[in-house]
Amino acid sequence: MSNKLQRNFALASGMFDKEKEYWLKKLSGELEPCFFPYDSISSHEPCVDFVEFNFSEKLCLSLNKISRASDKNLYYILAAGVTVLLHKYTGSSDFVVGTPIYIQGTENDFINTILALRNNLGTDTAFKQLIVDVKNMSTEAVANQNYPLDMILEELGAGSISTLIQVVVLLENIQDFKYVKDIGANIIFSFCREDENLKCKLYYNTALYRHSTVQRIIGHLINLMDKAIQNIDVRICDIDILSLEEQQRIMNLFNSTYADYPSNKTIHQMFEEQVIKTSDKIAVIYETLSETVSGDASKNYKSLTYMELNERANQLARVLRTKGIGTNNLTNSVVAIMVERSLEMMIGIMAILKAGGAYLPIDPEYPIDRIQYMLEDSKAGILLTQSWLRNSLLADTEVLELDDQSIFTGENSNLDITVGSDSLAYIIYTSGSTGKPKGVMLEHRSAVNYL
Q: How far is C-alpha 110 from the geometric centre of its chain's CA atoms?
C-alpha cells in the first residue's frame, strides 16, 4: 500500500478479512501488558538510553552453529531467550512480545511496522521446542501483517500498541530498528550479527529503569542463553538465570532471618514513618473488572499513595474517635470491618488502628448466624461495611458505610497516639472445637514482629 487511502480501500474491500480473523483469534481473551518490573515511575520526561553488551565468543560460535548461519534462525533463538527471561521475571506464561516487520524493499507507508507475538508457555516445554514455537508464531505473524494491529486491539478492547507491547526484540540484519523506535516500548533488545559475533544493545526508558537494573537484566539474559544453548533440550523451568554470586547471596544472606524489630511501636506508627519516607509512592493497588461495550471484561486499576491512604485513614479515625473509639479509656475498643477486598478495606483497617481501636475482620461470605455471633461475642461497638452489604445485617451494632464520602471530609493530619505496642491490634475468629468460633487476640508488637 503506497498511502492510507489505498490501505483503507483494501480494508473496506475485504481483501484482508482472513488476516483480520487470524489476529482476532490470536489476541482474543484476557491479555495483559507484560514488562520487566519497574524501579520507579519518575516525574521527568521519558528518555531512551541504551547499554551495549556482548555474548562470549564461545556462545556466539554455538549460536552460529545452531542457527546454521541463518539470520532468521538466529532471530528465533534470540527471541526465545528474551521470552524465557520475561517469563522468569514476571511469572507470566501468556503474554505478548513485539517484533518489527522484516526490512521492506520500498519506503512506502506500511500497514504495520510492529507485530505481536503471543506466547503461551508451558513450564515443561523444552527450550528447543520454544524456538520452534517462536518460528511458527513469527511466520504466521508475517503472513498476516497486512491488517492494522491497532484496529484489532481497539475492537478487542485490549488497549493500544504502546500499552500492550512493552518489550520488543529484533535482529537488525533482517529487521529495521526505525520501525519500532517510536512505538513507546519500554525495553528493546536489539541484536546485530557481524561475521560470527553479535553486537547487542538494550534500549530502555530512563523514567522507569535504572542503569543498574538494566545491567542486571543483561546479566540474566547472558546467563540464560549460556545455559540454554549448552543444552538446547533443557526445560524452561530448569533454566536458572542467576549468577553464582546471586545464588550464594540468596542461600547465605536472604536465609538469615534474624532481625531486630521496633517492639515499642504500633503498626500505625510504623506506617506513618513510611508515609514520611515515600509519601508519593503507591501504597496499595486494587484491580476491578468492568464490562466493555462488546460485553467482555476489562480490568481497571485504582490506587492510593501513602499520603492519600494516610489522610483518608486519619479522617475516618477522627469519626471513630467521636463515637468513643480509643477515648474514655476504651483503648481496646473493637471495631468490626466487613467489606469486599478494596481500597476501602485498607483505609478502614488503618483508621481503626489510628483511632486507638482493634479491628475484627469479617468475611461478607460468612453465614449470617456466624456474623451475628462474632459481632456479639467481640462486643464490637461499630461495624464498617459497604452499602450493598448492609442489608444482610441483623445486629444492632452501629454501622458506618465506607462508600459514604461524607465521612472523608474532616481534618486529615495524624492523630495523637493513645495506645502502645502491648495494646490489642486485631481479633481473628477460628472455627472453634465446640462449633462456636473462638476469638484470638493479637497485640501490636506481635504483628510488628511478624512483619
A: 33
Q: What are phi and psi of 354, to 5 degrees?
A: -65, -35
Closest by CA position to 136, among listed 60, 26, 21? 26
What the block records as the C-alpha cell of 132 is 520452534
Query: In Å, what is the CA distance from 95 to each residue of 55, 92, 111, 144, 432?
Result: 26, 7, 23, 19, 45
With contact defined as beta carbons under 8 Å apart, do 53 and 202 qualify?
yes
From CA 35, how far away is CA 163, in angstroms rounded? Answer: 10
**Residue that the C-alpha cell 520501525 belongs to:** 179
Virtual CA dihedral for 433, 434, 436, 439, nearest 10 degrees? Answer: -50
Could you list the beta-strand ranges (E) of 148-258: 167-171, 187-194, 197-205
Is the pTM value of this prediction over 0.85?
no
Over residues 134-155, the pLDDT tens digits come to 999 999 999 999 898 999 998 9
Tens-place pLDDT, residues 342-381: 899 999 999 999 999 999 999 888 888 888 888 888 888 8
Identify the three-state secondary structure at position 35.
coil
For residue 287, give the C-alpha cell: 484491580
Please report the pLDDT score of residue 312 as a whole number: 95
Residue 439 is predicted with a pLDDT of: 81
Give me the pLDDT at residue 391, please. 67
Given a cut of 60, is residue 227 above it in pLDDT? yes
> Cα torsion at 229, 118, 161, 212 (round to 10°)?
-30
Which residues are paired to 286 by β-bridges? 302
Give the chain's radius of gyration (CA, Å): 28
> Across the strands, what pairs with 170?
190
Q: Is the Cα torsion angle 40, 299, 308, 399 positive or negative in sign?
A: negative
| Residue 216: strand, helix, or coil | helix
* Contact by Cβ (8 Å): 338, 362: yes
